[in-house]
């Protein structure tokens, strides 16, 4: 346990965020000859909203896939809660308390909203198959505990009216919300959101922003998010990593990043004072 | 009047036969739903399960021929006769081990491959298992006796004899078929409860729906595959017991898988109720067709009727009765 300690970091709105939950050290990711991520290091601290931005094809989603274990980095180390993470399968990473959503919604479209969010509790369910078969009462009690937790999330996300609806029939914005609910149901240490607002209209974006801020505020969940909408990123995030062509070209609070000449050249390309 | 009663009797017998078709089809549906694999080996799985059951029960030494041929020994039997229940439990264990081996040696290496590749792999598996069954337990026809009742039910015969007056002897319904129907009902109900209300059942449905999303909530695909193949192996064992008790354990048992195909086309590949209803329709349909039209065209219609019915269904309702509608976005 050599938890790396940092100077307390004070965000722009005056909150203090804590030690690093996760550290990415010199991550490189290659697919054959293509280098998707090139020697990137940054950290994610307890309780913050950490954004990853960059133009299309910059390697943002690849980065998120490395964190969630869907990709194994070719080089570099992932440190989680003060320990170096060995090579892991995605489901093992999920069981460590890292939940995620996907850029192109990945829900169980045949199941209801309730059942979808219920699957998010799987990592928290203890009773085994045999126990469920032999000791029905205990399994039932556990089930109802999880149901309660799920109902709270449903209330929180204001989706009571679609509890029983198969999610395949829901409009896009609501599906995104259900997917967020499923990730929240795991009560994650780290929540990864891959473009949570992609393809939404202004009103839906505002709703989603509010939910993300509330999650961070009320549950103290550490969030990593990828987003294209610069306005949203600047409003939501405490610190921002900027990627371009697989390299890190900026890292810091939104205001600082906004002033970074490299970032302006590569990504914003506008507003030279 | 008597003619009508005969038709009813034929229908009931058809229903019973249909239950057995449905049992085999159920194994297909389970694996197809969870992994998108059409498991060609399902019929051979039933054969292998039945062979193992008989072998264990009779105390046969596995690979006896092979051992004798290479070492010049004269081994045949352990010399025990195992109680049926114990033998069944042990066979369930063997089917679980087989599921683990299938995951370990086949599925694990074919993750993210095209469905056709996986289908080909199951064809290979089918022939491998067929050979393995032969080498392990010998190729002779065996009788399977786990104590299931056989022969016509006298009770039903007596109760129905009064219906048709003098010339009518009452319905002949095999007691084995009745047991099979009951077993199938229990199996379907417990599978449904399991998949709707248990943690593993929910995980199973999740994997069937979306692999990536399932991984992201912490479900191990490998565990689920082992689980699904174990359940399919168990269903195969049940089907193997019923068919084996009816007509002996022999190679032709694996061909019942072919009868499951039209059942699946009718019921839809992804629906458990579909497999049941499909099985019943085929069972009743082919018996009634044989009874009514058969005599006019020279009989033996049971061999092909199911396939023709399935073809007709393919034209009008390609997703089957209960299957998910296939909608392709353009």
UniProtKB/TrEMBL annotation, chain A:
InterPro entries: AAA+_ATPase, ABC_AA/LPS_Transport, ABC_transporter-like_ATP-bd, BCA_ABC_TP_C, P-loop_NTPase. Coiled coil: none annotated. PROSITE patterns: ABC_TRANSPORTER_2. One of its GO terms (cellular component) is plasma membrane. Keywords: ATP-binding, Nucleotide-binding, Transport. Pfam families: ABC_tran (PF00005), BCA_ABC_TP_C (PF12399). Residues 22-270 form the ABC transporter domain. GO terms for molecular function: ATP binding; ATP hydrolysis activity. It comes from the Bacteria. PANTHER family: ABC TRANSPORTER ATP-BINDING PROTEIN, CONSERVED COMPONENT OF ABC TRANSPORTER FOR NATURAL AMINO ACIDS-RELATED. This is Amino acid/amide ABC transporter ATP-binding protein 1 (HAAT family). It comes from Rhodovulum bhavnagarense. The lineage of its organism: Bacteria, Pseudomonadati, Pseudomonadota, Alphaproteobacteria, Rhodobacterales.
TrEMBL record, chain B:
The chain crosses the membrane at residues 12-32, 44-64, 84-107, 116-139, 178-198, 219-243, 263-284, 296-316. GO terms for cellular component: plasma membrane. GO terms for biological process: amino acid transport. It is a multi-pass membrane protein. Pfam families: BPD_transp_2 (PF02653). The keyword Phosphoprotein does not apply. It is found in: Cell membrane. Keywords: Amino-acid transport, Cell membrane, Membrane, Transmembrane, Transmembrane helix, Transport. GO terms for molecular function: transmembrane transporter activity. The keyword Transmembrane helix applies. Belongs to the binding-protein-dependent transport system permease family. LivHM subfamily. This is Amino acid/amide ABC transporter membrane protein 1 (HAAT family). It comes from the Bacteria. InterPro entries: ABC_transp_permease (IPR001851), BCAA_transport_permease (IPR052157).
